[in-house]
Design goal:
Two copies of one chain form a homodimer. Chain A is α+β, with helices and mostly antiparallel strands. Chain A is 30% helix and 25% strand. Chain A binds a DNA duplex through helix 5.
Chain lengths: 224, 224
DNA sequence: TCAAAAGTGTTGACGGTACACCCATGT
DNA sequence: ACATGGGTGTACCGTCAACACTTTTGA
């Protein structure tokens, strides 16, 4: 029996040096939509699971590897691909952009980071998929500690706060934010401070995933 | 290029007369898993979107039509179907079971309601899918007014409270529950009372979806 | 010495939780 | 008259939001 073809697509988010939220796009070489920007993705092979396919396509098309990859939604309207019936399982990923900037910028495959607020027109229904991913990110960052995936392993509380402010689009009170976050006991203060800044150096912290899982089991729920 | 075949499956929830949470299953006629219980579902046609396919399969296999149908997750491990590579887009649905009891029970296709706490062994990975659906229902019922989909159009506050107690698995204080729910201004008290009960007749209410959408736009968020 | 961000406590308002008794109805 | 669930108000406590000044560092 004939059923639709199946692809995966990835909405990859990163924070740039200026704390701006970015999405990773590739420029299509082939028709349809040759020359247009699109989400990285492609057909699912018969011998790989969906998330393996998503990671493979992301690696092949952009060189990016990510720790955090989660299924977003499956898009399956009849006319979303002019080549015929293609259903796509969309994923979203969070990466520490500093690790990837150079690779993506110099990449022969022409992958680039775009500010979420200034995405170019996208191929297929990828514009809608990206918006959906952003919506999910905004919702999920409030009740799961996934923001840390966008930061380097060692970060300051101000970096974390700016991350929340950018993604949620709202200012947050510094003292209250610090109290809330530190009270959760999820961050480990390191024996290091920020260096090379023209002001008082900030304490560096590390997120403790093990601690989070432990707290989760005892009924704790993350809330920002 | 060969890609996986695509099916849809539905986890349909209903509340029975004794306020027990039930799931609708069908008994398979064909191999693989002939004779085993399974979620209603089947292959996606080339000319129908995913949610249309889900509704069609549900209707064909059980006679049930539902107002509330939402995508759950797409399951795509390589070995989940012995026939070959099959990816399934799972949906969950909520129905007012009283409307469907007779149909399903007398249905030639052998569809039956099972208590969520006593599901038989299911075909494929349908057991895991059903559990995932239950988890989603438990989470979502707290922050979106979807519980009403499980009740008749006219219901009492006690019915609603029992619904929450059964699904969340916790007792709720009657006075606080009523205050919270009524304060939201989502329920319309009707000019009718419960009849035929051996105690004081309860006020009947109707959920106002229009009102909810209106409140949503002004930033209101449902919380129970 | 100046600029720029780090760091730190208290108070008041509000919302949530705990809790017990009388009422209406059918048998 | 009795059994069964329907319906109602208050007081306390804890949590969250608002808010401003001192400290450290490099230029």
């Amino acid at each position: 029996m004939a059923t639709p073809q199946l692809t995966v697509d990835c909405v990859v988010f990163g924070l740039d040096e200026a704390d701006q939220l970015k999405v990773l796009l590739i420029q299509r070489k082939l028709e349809p939509f040759a020359g247009a920007w699109a989400l990285p993705g492609g057909f699912v092979h018969l011998d790989e699971s969906l998330d393996v396919a998503a990671r493979r396509e992301l690696q092949e098309e952009t060189g990016v590897e990510t720790h955090f990859l989660e299924q977003l939604y499956t898009f399956g309207t009849v006319d979303r691909d002019p080549r015929g019936r293609v259903v796509t399982v969309a994923y979203y990923a969070l990466v520490n952009l500093r690790d990837h900037t150079v690779q993506a910028a110099t990449d022969a495959r022409d992958a680039r980071w775009f500010a979420v607020s200034h995405l170019p027109p996208l191929a297929f229904d990828h514009g809608a998929i990206a918006q959906y991913g952003l919506q999910r990110l905004r919702a999920k960052i409030r009740y799961e500690p996934i923001g840390f995936e966008l930061l380097p392993p060692k970060f300051t509380l101000s970096q974390l706060q700016r991350l929340y402010e950018v993604i949620l689009g709202a200012e947050i009170d510094k003292r209250n934010f610090r109290k809330r976050i530190l009270k959760m006991d999820l961050l480990q203060p390191l024996d290091e401070k920020q260096t090379g800044v023209a002001h008082r150096a900030a304490q560096l912290y590390r997120f403790q995933p093990e601690r989070y899982r432990q707290l989760q089991r005892s009924g704790f729920s993350f809330e920002v």
